[in-house]
Specification:
The complex is a heterodimer of chains A (339) and B (678).
Chain A lengths: L1 H19 L3 H12 L5 H9 L4 H32 L24 H15 L3 E2 L5 E3 H4 L11 H4 L4 E2 L2 E3 L4 H10 L4 E10 L10 E11 L4 H15 L6 E8 L2 E10 L16 E10 L1 H7 L7 E8 H9 L12 H5 L3
Parallel strand pairs in A: 1-5
Antiparallel strand pairs in A: 2-4, 3-4, 5-6, 6-10, 7-8, 8-9, 9-10
Chain B lengths: L1 E3 H6 L1 E2 L4 H10 L3 E8 L2 E7 L10 H12 L2 E2 L8 E5 L5 E4 L5 E10 L8 H9 L7 H13 L4 E4 L7 E6 L5 E3 L5 E3 L5 E4 L4 E4 L3 E2 L12 E8 L1 H11 L4 H8 L6 H16 L2 E4 L2 E3 L8 E5 H8 L5 H10 L5 E3 L2 E5 L10 H12 L20 H15 L3 E2 L5 E2 L1 H5 L12 E2 L10 E2 L4 H13 L5 E13 L2 E13 L11 H15 L4 E5 L5 E11 L4 E8 L1 H6 L6 E7 L21 E10 L4 H11 L4 E10 L8 E10 L8 H19 L2 E2 L1
Parallel strand pairs in B: 6-17, 7-10, 22-26
Antiparallel strand pairs in B: 1-4, 2-5, 3-4, 8-16, 8-17, 8-18, 9-16, 10-13, 11-12, 13-14, 14-15, 19-21, 20-21, 23-25, 24-25, 26-27, 27-31, 28-29, 29-30, 30-31, 32-34, 32-35, 33-34
Helix pairs in contact in B: 2-3, 4-5, 5-8, 6-7, 10-11, 12-15, 17-18
Classes of the chains: A alpha+beta (339), B alpha+beta (678).
Chain lengths: 339, 678
Amino acid sequence: MGLERLKKVRASFAADLAAAGSDPDAVETLRVAYAGRKSGLLQDLTAALRELPNEAKRDYGQALNELKKFVEDGLKQAKERAAASAGSSSVGQIDVTLPGRALPRGAEHPVHLVRRRIEEIFLRMGYDVESGPEIEDDWHNFEALNIPPDHPARDDQDTFYVGSNLLRTHTSPVQARVMERTQPPIRIVVPGRVYRRDSDLRHSPMFHQLEGLVVDEGITVGNLKATLETFLHALFSDDVQVRLRPGYFPFTEPSAEVDISCIFCDMKGCGVCSGSGWIEILGSGMVDPRVFEAVGIDPERYTGFAFGLGLDRVAMLQYGIPDLRQLFAGDQRLTRQFE
Amino acid sequence: MNFDAAWLMALLDSPPGADEMTDKLTACGFLVELREEGDGGEIWDVEVTTNRPDAMNHRGLAREAALAAGATLKPFEFELDESDEPSSDLATVEIDDPTMCTRFCARVIRGVAAASSPEWMQRRLANSGVRPISAIVDVTNYVLLEFGQPLHAYDLAKVGGARLIARRAVAGESLVTLDGETRKLEPGMPVIADAYDVVGLAGIMGGADSEIGDDTVDVLLEAANFDALSIRRAARKLGMHTEASHRFERGADPELPPLAIDYAAALIAEFTGGTVCAGRIDVRPRPWEPHELTTTASKLSSFMGLEIPLARLVEIANGLDLNPRTDGDTIICSVPSYRVDLEREADLIEEFVRHVGFDAIPARLPVLATAPGRRNPNWELVDRARSAAVNVGLAEIMTWSFIDPDSDAAVESLPMCPGQAVQLDNPLASTQATMRRSLLPGLLSAVRDNLNQGERTVAVFEQGRVFWFADGAPAEGERLAVALVGSRLGQDRAVDFADLKGVVDAIVDELGYPNHRWRRGGGPWLDEAQAAVIETDDGKTIGSAGLVDHSMAKKWDIKTPVYVAELDLAAAAEEIPLPSFVELPRTPAVTADMTVEHPTDLSYADLHTVARELAGDLVEAIDLQTRYTGKGLPSGAVRSTLRLTYRAADRSLTQDEVNDQQEALREGLSRRLGVTFA
C-alpha cells in the first residue's frame, strides 16, 4: 500500500518538475511542496513509515530513500538550469585570466631542432640520413678525402688525436664510408658531432655539422646549385638570395662557398654579416675524382656533389644566439626557451 | 691577406671601379672580405685559398682581376745596371740536396749605404700589413708582395767563406734566427749554411748573425725555390709561420727567382747607392718542365649543365696564360710555372668553372629516383629516445664529450661503466682530456650550474655518445641520461624516486626495451637505499637510476637531492612492434580491494608477481592502491592495498563469485608468502 503511494509521488514529481522548466519561482514552489521542511510531501511520507507494520518497514524505507534522492537530484538540476538561464552562476564567476594548472612541458635542444628540420627537408627530397663514428681513423677523416699527410688543409682542421685514431674533424668521413660500401646512385645527408682543437667566441672544440652527398651519372654543377637553392629556401625563406662563389676544399673540385643574403638587414649591411650583406652558410663542390678513386667509384662514369654546413651556426643565426659555447653549457633555461 | 687596392689597380690597364673590381674578384674565387681606408687608398682583405699561392701577391691577384674584369695586365719592365765585377767572383752557391732546393739564385750588390725606402714603397708595404724597416729589407718584402718570391739579404761580410749551401741540418746544429730565438735544429731540416755554420732556416727565416745592418757594405741576395713539403714539416716542427714559409709551403714559382732577384737588386742599388755586380748566380739541378692539360668543351658543358662554346674556353685560358690550342672539341693548355695547383684535368675544369662563374650556370634540380628517404637506425633510435624524454617534460641539454679525468674516474663504479677510458693525446685543457664513459658526470655538472644560476627545479636530459676502449679499439655507444632536482614540474612537492621511475619507465616503454625490471642495486654512485638497476629478462643491464649518493653529490658541490638515471640505448628494440587491437570488453568490471600486511623486505614486485600467478583468468589487473607503514604496525611491516579488477568476457560477474576469488587469493598469498590480511 505504502509503496504504491511512493510510486505515485515519484510520477507526479517528475511531471511537476518538467512543468517547472527553468523558471526559478516555479522550481522554488516545487521545492517547498515536496521537500519543504515543514509541510513538504516527503516529510509526510517519512512520518508514514512509523505507521507501517514492522515487516513492511524495510522495503518502504529503501524505496523512500530512493525517492528522496530522486527529488533532491531533480531539484538540484532544476536550480542549476534556472540559474544558468538567469545568466548568473550559483558557484560564482570564474576569472578566466587566472593561470591554468601547468603540465610539465619538455623541450628539444636548439641544435637538434635545426638538425631535424634539415633532415626533414632532405628526407622529403628522397635523401637517406646516415650516421658514423665520432672516433675516426686517419683514412676516412683525411686520406680518402684527398687530404694526405702534410697537406696544408690539416692545419685548418686542428685535430684531437687518440693514438693512431682521431676525433673526426668533420662529418665528411661518413661520405667516404658510405661510398666504400655503396655504389651509386647515392643520395645522403649526414648530421653529427665533430671536433676541432679550437676555442673562442666563434669556435668551439665540439660542434655539429650536416653533410650532404649526391653521386650518380650525369650530376652537374647546375644540379648542385639548384639543390642548395631549394634547400636554403626551404630552411630560411623563398626570399633569400643564394650566392655561390669559388672556394677551396681538398675533397671537392670545383668547390663553392655558399652565401645567403643577410636575413637580418635585408642586405643593407649589419653586424651579423659584417656589413657585406651576405652570410656564409655552406661549403660545397663537385666531388673530387681522387675521392672517387680512393673509395672505389669510377670517376669516368660518375660525378657528384657534396655540401656541408654547421648546425650550431644555423641555430645561432635562426634563434639569435650570440655565443656558440653557450649551446653546450647545459643551461636548461636556454632549452626551455624552445618549449 | 691584405692588398693595397691602388697598387693592384696600378698593375692593370683600364681597371674598373673598386666596387665592380671587388665583386668580380669575389665571383672568381677571391672573396674580398673587408674594405677599409688605408694610407692613400683602400686596403682590401682578400681571402686567397691555400691552393693558390700564385695569387698571394699583387701581380698574381691582378692577373685574375684582369681576366675577371675584362682589363689587361700591364707588362712589367725595369732596368738593371750591372758593374763589370762578376757576382761569381765574390760569392758561391751550392745545392747539396736537390730534394729540398730546386733552384738557388744569388746576386751581390756592393757599396750599399744605410737608407730608407721611398715613401711610395713604405705606403704600399704598410697597406699590405708589412712594417717598413730599411731600404734593403723593404725591397725584399716589396718584391715578395708584388711577385710572391721570398728573398733574403745577407751581409756578405758575415757569410763565412762567401759561400751559401742549401743542405739538410745535421745532428746538434742550432741557429739564432732574426727574431732573436735560438732554434734547435733536427737532422733533416732544410737550412742554408755558409762555409762553417748554419746561417738561415731555408724558406722560413734568416739567421741573426748574417743580418743586414747599418754597417753593411756588400749585400748577398738570395732568391731560391724550396720543396714545399720540406719547408712545411720544418716550419711545423719549429712552430714557425712566416710570410716566406706561408708561400713555400703552398708551392712557389720555380721560374720566378731570376726575375725577382734582378728586380730586387735594381731597387736596392737605386735606394742605397750600391752597385749590382755582373751576372746572376743561378744553380738549378733540374730545370722546370712545363706540362699540358686537356679537356673538351662537351665534357665541360655536361659537367656544368651549361653549353660552353670552345671559343669562350680559349678566351679564359688565354687570360690565365695557359697558351691554349684546340683540336676539334679538345682544348690543350700549357700550365705556367706559377700554377702549381694545376696537376690534373679536374684542376683545369675548375679554372673554367671559376671564370664562367656560378652565376652563369642555370640551377636545375637533379633527376633522381623517386624513393622515399630512409633514416639510419641509429638516428631513429636516438630521436625515439629524445622525443620520449621531451614528452615527459624534460629539457634537453648538451654537454661536452670530453670531461675531466677526475670526474671520469668516478664513473668506474657505475654498473654501466663500459670499459677503459679513451684519453685525448692533445686535449685543449686538462679538464677536457678524457672522452666521457657516462653522461652522468656532465649531467651533474650541468645540474650544479643550473642550481648556481638560481634554478630551484631542474628537470633535464642529455642524449649523446659515450666512448671507451674495447679490445684495444675505440668504441662508442648512444646513451640517454635524466636528472630531476627540486619539485616535480607543475606540482608543489619534492621529487622522489617514484617521479624518477615514472619518467624512466615512460622513456623505456617508448624505446621498446625487451621486458624490463627494476631491482635494488647500483651503489656506490647512488644512495644504496634508493638505487636501482634496470635489467632485461635475460639479466642484461640497460640502465641504472636513483638518488645520487651524498658523497658523490658533494664532489660536485651539490647540496640538494639529485635523482638521476642513465639508459644504454644499444639494448633498445630496433623497431617498436605495431600495437595489436584487443576486442573491447562488453561486460562490466568489478573491483575489489585487498589489504596485505607483509614485511618490508618482500618487494612489491615479488608480491605482485605471486599475486598475478595466483589470480585466475578473471583478474584483469592488479594495481597498488595505497601503502602504509607506521602507527598500528610493527616496525618492518607494511600494508599494501591492492585493487583487483575482475571481469569475465561473457557475463556480468556476481559479488559472490568475486568474493570467492578474493578469498582464494588471500589463502594462496598467505600460503606462498606468509602474509596476513587487514
